[in-house]
Amino acid sequence: MTATVDIRQGAIYLSRETYQTYFAGIEAVIVLIRDRTLQVLPVMHMAAGGCLLKMRNAAGDRVASAPDVFAANGLFDWTATEIEGRWSAEAGGLVIALPD
User: Fold this and answer.
1) Extents of the domains making up the chain
2) Residue 97: which residues within 8 A CB-CB, separation 6 or more?
3) Sign of CA dihedral 10, 55, 90, 97
4) Is 18 in a helix, a strand, or coil?
5) Other residues' Cβ atoms within 10 Å of the Cβ of residue 17
6) Alpha-carbon distance 22 to 9, whole Å?
7) Does the predicted TM-score (pTM) go above 0.85?
8) DSSP letter string, 34-71
9) What is the DSSP letter of 27?
10) CA nearest 51: which of 61, 38, 65?
11) d(Cα 63, Cα 37) in Å, to the nearest integer?
12) pLDDT tens digits for 32-62?
């Protein structure tokens, strides 16, 4: 299964459809960059921390802001529109390949 997301200034934008497919009922995610992939992992308990999946609009689109993660990896200014990601059972979340 694949999904598309938008990324700009350290924030990951998810459509309502992507949110409902992969993160329904989830209020927070952990954002990691490792092995040249961006990983968006659901947090099942708010006490575990993570980035809030804030509602952007009445349509139900969401955004997770993680500027510190992107900045630490030299990607704060990276912008991507409709970049494809896939669900990874191994990672336990949505995985997006980073450009070289």
Assistant:
1) 2-97
2) 36, 37, 38
3) negative
4) helix
5) 13
6) 23
7) yes
8) ETTEEEEEEESSGGG--EE-EE-STT--EEEE-HHHHH
9) -
10) 65
11) 18
12) 999 899 999 999 877 777 899 999 999 999 9
